[in-house]
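Long-time lurker, first post. I've been practising inverse folding by hand and with some scripts of my own, and I keep getting stuck on stretches where the structure tokens seem ambiguous. Below is the full token string for one chain I'm working on. Before anyone asks, I'm not after the true native sequence, just a reasonable design that respects the backbone. If someone could post their per-position residues I'd love to compare against what I wrote down in my notebook.
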């Protein structure tokens, strides 16, 4: 797992992918806003890494703009956001706006944490591609991300 707070600057370029070479899925795990509970996000980052994905963890208290900038810089396939604060609707709306503004809508967004089912439609409208419930097992999280990437024919 990579922590953005301790990373050196890079040019963000990735080599072209040979269609016969297995693709490594790159995931940015983020905590938006003032939600200071990061144990679950760290557990998810570990699960994804153990499943063979490259994981970048942003740390706490990031703005949607910070997360999108990091996702672009790190050339990730997926942004995974864990929220427990109840502020998921405005934060995901802003995240979606930032992705559109920076023409980065190709990056999938996966939401997790405490999210009531009645908010799922609004999150989808904001650009969230998948929602993983708080009680989800690790294999569901991994499968959800792999299925999103497979939709684009990458794996």
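-- Answer (accepted) --
I ran through it position by position. Result:
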């Amino acid at each position: 797992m990579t922590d953005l707070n301790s990373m050196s600057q890079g040019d963000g370029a990735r080599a072209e992918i040979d269609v016969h070479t297995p693709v490594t899925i790159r995931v940015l795990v983020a905590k938006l806003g003032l939600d200071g509970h990061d144990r679950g996000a760290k557990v998810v980052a570990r699960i994804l890494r153990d499943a063979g994905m490259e994981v970048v963890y942003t740390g706490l208290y990031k703005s949607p703009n910070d997360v999108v900038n990091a996702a672009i810089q790190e050339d990730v396939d997926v942004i995974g956001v864990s929220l427990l604060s109840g502020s998921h609707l405005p934060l995901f709306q802003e995240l979606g706006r930032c992705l559109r503004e920076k023409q980065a809508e190709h990056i999938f967004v996966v939401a997790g944490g405490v999210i009531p089912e009645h908010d799922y439609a609004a999150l989808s409208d904001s650009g969230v591609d998948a929602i993983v419930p708080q009680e989800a097992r690790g294999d569901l999280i991994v499968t959800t991300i792999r299925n999103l990437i497979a939709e684009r024919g990458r794996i």
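A couple of notes from the structure itself: Residues 88-101 form the longest helix (14 residues). The radius of gyration is 14 Å. Happy to go over any region you disagree with.
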